[in-house]
Design brief:
Two copies of one chain form a homodimer.
Chain A (H helix, E strand, L loop, with lengths): L5 H7 L2 H16 L5 E2 L11 H12 L15 H15 L8 E4 L1 H13 L5 E6 L4 H7 L4 E6 L8 H7 L4 E6 L12 H12 L6 E5 L15 H4 L3 E6 H4 L8 E5 L6 H14 L7 H9 L7 H17 L12 E5 L6 H10 L2 E2 L1 E2 L8 E5 L4 H17 L4
Parallel strand pairs in A: 1-10, 3-4, 3-5, 5-6, 6-7
Antiparallel strand pairs in A: 2-8, 7-8, 9-12, 11-12
Helix pairs in contact in A: 3-12, 4-12, 5-11, 13-15
Chain lengths: ~400, ~400
Amino acid sequence: MIASRMIPKIRSGSAIRKMFEEGNRLKKIYGDDKVYDFSLGNPDLEPPKEVSDALKELADNPTPGMHGYMSNSGYESTRAAIAKKRGDEAGMEIDPGAVCMTVGAACAMNDVLHSLLDEGDEVIVLCPYFMEYNSYIENHGGKVVRVNTSDDFMPDIKAIEAAITDRTKAIIINSPNNPSGVVYPAELLSSLNDMLKSKDHVIHVISDEPYIDLVYDGMTVPPVLDYIDNLVICFSWSKSLSLPGERIGYTLVSPKNEDYEDLTQAIVYSHRTLGSVNAPAIWQKVVEKSLYAKVDVANYEKRRDLLYSNIVDAGFTAVKPNGALYIFMKTPDGLTDEEFQDICHDYNILLVPGKSFSGEGYCRLAFCVSETTIRNSREAFFAVGKKLGLN
Amino acid sequence: MIASRMIPKIRSGSAIRKMFEEGNRLKKIYGDDKVYDFSLGNPDLEPPKEVSDALKELADNPTPGMHGYMSNSGYESTRAAIAKKRGDEAGMEIDPGAVCMTVGAACAMNDVLHSLLDEGDEVIVLCPYFMEYNSYIENHGGKVVRVNTSDDFMPDIKAIEAAITDRTKAIIINSPNNPSGVVYPAELLSSLNDMLKSKDHVIHVISDEPYIDLVYDGMTVPPVLDYIDNLVICFSWSKSLSLPGERIGYTLVSPKNEDYEDLTQAIVYSHRTLGSVNAPAIWQKVVEKSLYAKVDVANYEKRRDLLYSNIVDAGFTAVKPNGALYIFMKTPDGLTDEEFQDICHDYNILLVPGKSFSGEGYCRLAFCVSETTIRNSREAFFAVGKKLGLN
């Protein structure tokens, strides 16, 4: 008697959530230090000092109206600071009106897709991808169109072009990528833009950027604003400032976007009526005061290195990720992802099969877990590798 | 090139928002104390001390993971505390699983409607009503069915019954009511329940309760859980604790709801995939610590009395509201709401015509403005009354 489309969703649940519960069950049996739960991308580092200082300052010095309504798009000063930062990075002028503060990136994506999609419009996603995109697209009448990436998980421009129809409204890109960890180079963004601009209708590029500050090996992420014209950015501080529970992010429409005027207004309207109304007031102020701070990225890099070594030293194969919080390892030949998952499970290693990202033949491991867990897991990886004749 | 359904929305904008901008324009010309802006329901009292103390305590004593993800439905301890409070009030046992913490009531309503509605399902609203309901319903494929209330703005059970079809999925009730300020008595809720239960399919009652703690004249709001069976509550602390900018509220499915199991799960799924993911972590903790606190209701009552006196003493007619933050005054005979609005505007009184609430023949005045503004407006009301021959 609830909505019929909800029935299969609540019956199946989220595979990742189920792993999370299984992890907790195993920990109760074997103890915390003997279960190697790499299933959940829950950033476990604490926010940087700038964040706790800013929060303390605001809480210790309450001012009238600080918890009141503001414009639906957020505080002008916060939006201006973000517009300046992103503009400086890309070497362009960005008006604060380009920015709408949101309840994290998931909210931002829903606001954008609600603004763009008519019933039956198509949105291209690049496999493997964060499967919640399916819901975000379908919530607003859109149709998910899956396009495979190349062997190194980079967008395949020809394959994308082949998937475009007159109903293609947008493509979602996600760099640094969940689950593969790859960072798209500037030339690739340029080629994507050229191809999209050659079409006879506007195709928006939605850049989902929760991991933009989590890059390693001295790499920098090319400013997407410089390379893509019909662009909308969906950003979140969940990972950059380790604030996933507080729900703060933004949308930013590129000044070069051909639908700039309509789209900026539509996003604010969607944001209001889809129920967020505005992003949490205090977190807007905190991020404004912490705009140039970052979580301890070197710590994540160290963990990536440790987990990557465990995997390859034990005889498995993986592309070393340059960003984000995941290693997308190859499932050993002759096994399905689920069979491999089951074997790992026998050794208390929890990972998520590629199916959960439309990326069969791989499994995802999140390295945002304690260094001790990663170190302790080394033996288990070797044991699995030995069982499979890989070491 | 954005979604075609968005075009008329962004062209028309929100009437209430436009009044807000007009208020700011007039204040610049005439000065803050000579513009009587009753257009916006923006609670202007500060949160009670319990809230600022709790926020300060949390900010001063950071604990690991306090800004991290929790279950999509929110902290177990917060949900348990709410379940206990609402259960105690209604004299029933409520499981924490009945509660999902949300990003305010607007988010809660979207989560619930997304969970309930199939394309073309009908939702009954009682005129006059908060017009954002239209968006919340249409966002998820629903159809708005308007039913008039009686002369004193109470639900008319026979009229509601006449509007029910086999596609009626829900009815939204809002007591204390925006814009009329009426509080529905227990017998009326009982009659509504009896009538709905006599139908051969489940019709959910969505109780939108942002004003439940704002009642005057020693009145109490009957616990809706006692009187309605197929009930979902959408609550917000925006008004009770004066935290509208922070976005914190909840849904609560009655244990008596025939769809309890499916609906509680569907709401959490909707909450996650519509983009909220979870309610802001720190505000969940703050409201848990401030659960029995309230904004200074006596202050609002005093302002209501002052504004009501201004209106009736100047010769106008209004039902004295027992709750919420608004007086819904009758438009004087012989004038349209817009004509009356224009005359008031000439005297720097800003109000919202009934059309914005599907309640023609009336205008809404919000009394959550400073006492000085209300006192200063008295002369202006008398001048308008005099012009219209009412005093």
